[in-house]
Design goal:
The complex is a heterodimer of chains A (308) and B (304).
Chain A lengths: L7 E7 L13 H18 L4 H7 L1 E12 L8 E11 L3 E10 L5 E13 L4 E2 L4 H9 L24 H7 L2 E7 L13 H16 L6 H5 L3 E11 L8 E11 L3 E10 L5 E12 L11 H9 L7
Helix pairs in contact in A: 1-5
Chain B lengths: L4 E7 L13 H18 L4 H7 L1 E12 L8 E11 L3 E10 L4 E14 L4 E2 L4 H9 L18 H4 L4 H6 L3 E7 L13 H18 L4 H7 L1 E12 L8 E11 L3 E10 L5 E13 L4 E2 L4 H11 L1
Antiparallel strand pairs in B: 1-3, 2-5, 2-8, 3-4, 4-5, 5-6, 7-9, 8-11, 9-10, 10-11, 11-12
Helix pairs in contact in B: 1-6
Classes of the chains: A alpha+beta (308), B alpha+beta (304).
C-alpha cells in the first residue's frame, strides 16, 4: 500500500525506545497516542480548535477505531501522520490516518476512525454545525485503505455488559487496575492510548495460558499486532477501577484472534471492546512463522464458545 | 527563499502539563528533540543511515525563550532552519508555534555539533551535509532570536567543585539517576530528561525561597520559565547518579534568575548547566505577577 494522495499532515515526531515493548517495537498504545494528537489537529483544521472546543464544550470523540499495522516501528524511526475526512454524517465523522516512516514514505500503520461530535455536558452526540461540516468536506478524500477486518469475527463482538456471560464463554480476567490521572485528557476522560495499553496487557496475560507467556518471549520469540478493531462505549475518569476480560476467538497457523472486553469493575458497565489479531513472527526476518506445536494445542483447547 | 522545514507536529497532552497548568518545559524540549531527529534526516542523517555511518549531530547548547504558555489540547508544530554553519558545529533555530493562535510559543537558538558516534568524538560535517544545510539556511531578525548574556562571573559559576559550591550556599535541588528508558536511540540520555530534572529542581528552589507547594496551592500563584540557557557538557549514561545544585544570581520585582549545575554524583564532573530566568505567575489571571517581598529578600540574601 502506498501513501494516499491529498492527505494532510496532522502529526510529525519520533518513536523513542521508551515507547517500545519487549518485542523490540513500538507498543500499540503509542500508535493510539500519536493518532489522538493527529485527531486534535484534524479538529483544529475543521474549525474546532482547542480554545473553541473548551468554550462550546464539544469535541470530536472516537467511537470506533480500526488500527491496521503494516510494518513494525522501531525506536528512533522518524514518523509522520497524514489524514483525511472520509464521510460526514449528521453528528458523525469518519476519518483515515496513515502513519508513514518519514524517511521513505512507507506506510507503518493506518487507522479508520468513526467519531462523534460529542456534547461533553450532555454526554451524547450532537449535530455538526454547518460551518464545520463545510470545512470538513474540504478535507474529504477517497481512501483505499482497510476500514475493518477482512474477515468479520464469527458471531461479532458482543457489546452487552455481562461479565458473567463472558466468563461462561471462556473469557478470563487479563488485567485489573485503575485509571490514572495522567492517563486522562484535558476534559478528564481516559485517553484512547490508555485503553489500548490495557489490551496490550491483556494479550500478555492471556498468552500465559496458551504457552505465549514470559518464558516464550524470553526464549527470543516475538509477536506483533496485525489489527485492533476497537469500540469505545464509555469514557472512564481518573480513579475508576477497570477489569479486562479476554478470550481467544480464533487461532491460525501463525495467528491468534483475541476478544477483549474492558469493564468498569465497580459498575459492571462495558468501557471498550477490541477484536484483534496477533501474529507470531520470526525474530530475525520479522515475517510470520507457525506457532510451536504446544502453543497450537493449548490454543485449540482454549477457544471461546462461539455464540449460537 | 525560506529554508524552514516542519520538523514536529502534534497536540499538547494533558499529562504533559504540570501543576502550574501548562505544558512542562521538558516537553517543549521534547518537541525540539523530535525536531532534531527530523532535522538530522533533512541533513542526510536519517535513522537508516546513522546506524551504518555513525554520523549524526548532538546538541551542545540550547538557548530557549518561552514566549507563550501552552495549555492541554493546544495544537503545535515546530519548524527548523540553519542559522550558521562552521566546520564541525552549526547554529540552528527551532520555532514552536501554537497553530490555533499563530503565536510563537517558544524559540530556541541551538548549537549542534557533528559527531562520529563510533569514534565517540566530533568530526567535520560531510560535504553532503554541508550542501543540505545550505538549502536549509534561514535568517531570523536579531530581535526575534533569543539573546543571552552570560553572568559576569560565569567562569566561577562553571567551576566543577561540589564541596565548594555547597560551602558557598548552593542548594541541592535534585538528586537522582538516569533511567535506562530515558535514553534515546543514539544511546544518549535524551535532552528532555535533563530539562525534566532542572524543572524538578526549580520547585525545590522556589520552595526554599519561600514559595512552597502549599503556598502555591493556596495563593494560586506559581512560576513559569521565560528563558533557559542550557549547556550540555559531559553526557550522562543510563544508571549514572546525579546531583543538581542551584543558586539565585539575580532578582527583580517579578523574576528570579538562577544558575543550575547538574553534577555526575560519582565522578564530580559537571554534566550540564542551566542559566534560567523564571517569572512569578498568577495562575488565575494567567499573567506574570510580582514575587512576594519576602521571597525577593531571601533570594537577594543568597546572591552573594
Amino acid at each position: 500500500m502506498v501513501a494516499s494522495a491529498g492527505f494532510e499532515e496532522l502529526w510529525r515526531g519520533v518513536a523513542y525506545p521508551w515507547e517500545c515493548d519487549h518485542m523490540g517495537h513500538m507498543n500499540v498504545q503509542h500508535y493510539a497516542s500519536k493518532g489522538a494528537e493527529a485527531a486534535q489537529w484534524l479538529m483544529h483544521r475543521i474549525g474546532l480548535p482547542p480554545a473553541r472546543a473548551a468554550e462550546v464544550r464539544r469535541v470530536m470523540a472516537p467511537v470506533a477505531d480500526y488500527f491496521r499495522f503494516r510494518r513494525e516501528v522501531r525506536g528512533g524511526d522518524i514518523l509522520a501522520i497524514r489524514g483525511a475526512v472520509l464521510e460526514i454524517g449528521e453528528d458523525r465523522l469518519a476519518y483515515a490516518l496513515e502513519m508513514v516512516d518519514a524517511e521513505n514514505d512507507e506506510i507503518c500503520a493506518t487507522s479508520c476512525v468513526s467519531a462523534i461530535h460529542l456534547d461533553l455536558d450532555a454526554g451524547r452526540a450532537s449535530p455538526w454545525p454547518a460551518a464545520l461540516r463545510q470545512s470538513a468536506s474540504r478535507l474529504q478524500r477517497p481512501w483505499e485503505g482497510e476500514r475493518g477486518p477482512r474477515q468479520a469475527l464469527a458471531g461479532g463482538v458482543d457489546a452487552r455488559s455481562d461479565m458473567a456471560a463472558d466468563a461462561r464463554d471462556g473469557c478470563v480476567p487479563s488485567y485489573r487496575g485503575t485509571v490514572q490521572a495522567w492517563e486522562c485528557d484535558r476534559f478528564g476522560r481516559m485517553a484512547p492510548s490508555a485503553v489500548m495499553a490495557r489490551f496490550s496487557h491483556g494479550v500478555w496475560q492471556f498468552g500465559q495460558a496458551i504457552g505465549v507467556g514470559p518464558a516464550f518471549y524470553r526464549a527470543g520469540n516475538v509477536t506483533a499486532g496485525l489489527f485492533y478493531d476497537l469500540r469505545y462505549h464509555a469514557w472512564p475518569v481518573a480513579g475508576d477501577v477497570l477489569v479486562l476480560l479476554s478470550g481467544l476467538s480464533e487461532h491460525g497457523r501463525s495467528s491468534h484472534r483475541y476478544l477483549h472486553k474492558l469493564y468498569d469493575a465497580a459498575t459492571g458497565r462495558l468501557v471498550a471492546t477490541a477484536d484483534s489479531i496477533g501474529i507470531n513472527i520470526d525474530a530475525a526476518t520479522r515475517r510470520p512463522i507457525a506457532w510451536p506445536a504446544e502453543v497450537a494445542a493449548q490454543s485449540a483447547a482454549r477457544l471461546l464458545k462461539v455464540p449460537a | 527563499m525560506s529554508g524552514w522545514i516542519p520538523t514536529a507536529r502534534g497536540a499538547v497532552n494533558a499529562w504533559e502539563c504540570d501543576h502550574m497548568g501548562h505544558m512542562n518545559v521538558q516537553f517543549y524540549v521534547g518537541r525540539i528533540a523530535d525536531g532534531a531527529s527530523h532535522l538530522r534526516a533533512a541533513l542526510g542523517m536519517p535513522p537508516s543511515v546513522v546506524g551504518d555511518t555513525g554520523r549524526a549531530f548532538v546538541v551542545l547548547e540550547h538557548c530557549i525563550e518561552y514566549r507563550r504558555e501552552l495549555r492541554a489540547g493546544a495544537v503545535v508544530w515546530v519548524e527548523s532552519g540553519v542559522l550558521e554553519l562552521a566546520e564541525k558545529t552549526a547554529t540552528v533555530c527551532y520555532r514552536l508555534w501554537n497553530a490555533e493562535t499563530a503565536e510563537l510559543a517558544a524559540i530556541s537558538r541551538s548549537v549542534i555539533v557533528s559527531v562520529d558516534l563510533k569514534a565517540r568524538r566530533s568530526a567535520p560535517w560531510t560535504e553532503a551535509t554541508r550542501t543540505r544545510a545550505e538549502a536549509l539556511r534561514v535568517t531570523v531578525d536579531a530581535a526575534e532570536l533569543p539573546r543571552y548574556t552570560p553572568p559576569e562571573d560565569v567562569e566561577r559559576l562553571d567551576r566543577a567543585d561540589m564541596a565548594r559550591d555547597l560551602a558557598e550556599g548552593w542548594l541541592e535541588t535534585h538528586r537522582g539517576a538516569a533511567n535506562a528508558w530515558e535514553c534515546d536511540h543514539l544511546g544518549h540520555w535524551n535532552a528532555r530528561f535533563y530539562v525534566d530534572r532542572f524543572a524538578q529542581g526549580a520547585f525545590h528552589l522556589h520552595s526554599a525561597l519561600g514559595m512552597p507547594p502549599d503556598w502555591m496551592r493556596r495563593s494560586r500563584r506559581g512560576t513559569a520559565a521565560l528563558m533557559q540557557h542550557i549547556r550540555y557538557r559531559r553526557e550522562l549514561m543510563a544508571g549514572d547518579t546525579m546531583v543538581l545544585l542551584s543558586k539565585p544570581i539575580a532578582v527583580t520585582e517579578k523574576t528570579v534568575r538562577y544558575y543550575n549545575k547538574l553534577y555526575n554524583a560519582a565522578t564530580g564532573a559537571l554534566s550540564a548547566t542551566m542559566d534560567v530566568l523564571d517569572v512569578g505567575l498568577d495562575r488565575t489571571a494567567r499573567r506574570s505577577a510580582a514575587l512576594p517581598p519576602e521571597v525577593r529578600a531571601k533570594a537577594e540574601a543568597m546572591l552573594a
